Amino acid sequence: MVAEGGQPTKQSVFVVKFLADAMLGRLMTWLRLLGYDTAWADDLADSQIARLARSEGRIVLTRDTQFARRKGLPIVLFHEQTLAGELQELRQSVTLPPADLFSRCPVCNATLQLLTRETAKPLVPPYVWQTQTTFRRCPHCGRVYWAGTHRQHVLAFLREIGWPLAKNTPPVGTD
After folding, report:
1. Facing residues of 94 across strands?
2. Distance between CA atoms of residues 138 and 105, nearest Å
């Protein structure tokens, strides 16, 4: 974490909200998969990013060393190029609350809402409806999610890199 005056600090927070700049789109998606509120500043000027971060109480995630020198903004400056490295840098910079996996839409960042099986039936392929019991829908973009193979790949990757998971997180292949 780069604090006011450019000195690294570790920030202890209970609720964190991030604002990822255009260079960190992959990390932004993964933070959403982890359940962290992560906005994306893919087409904003630096002054707009700073304004938005201040008004919404967000920590800016960036690779831009000049932007990271700004005072008065909580900023994490990334050097790593791999997703595993980026996640490790984030964990070293910010004390994160436990992840609420798959609770946010990875596309638009909205909190997903639980759907009944009957409500989900016309919205998902027949095989998915027959084999899955839990469905979530994004209230913003309308996408529907379920625990398919993508979830298994995400969990396997997180375990591989040593990401802390809740004790009740099912083993890969059982969800």
Report:
1. 11
2. 6
Render pLDDT for 37-69 as a digit per residue (tens, 0 to 9): 999 999 999 999 999 999 999 999 999 999 999
DSSP 54-65: HHHTPEEEES-H
How wide is the angle at C-alpha 34 spanned by C-alphas 91 and 36, nearest 5°? 80
Going along the chain from its start, the domains and CATH numbers come out as 11-95 (3.40.50)
- Estimate to the nearest angstrom the gap between the alpha carbon of 146 and the chain centroid: 17
Burial code of 111-121, b = ≥16 C-beta within 10 A, e = fewer?
A: ebeebeeeebe
pTM (predicted TM-score): 0.86
Pairing mode, strands 17-21 and 59-62: parallel
Tell me the pLDDT tens digit for each residue of 145-166.
Answer: 999 889 999 999 999 999 888 7
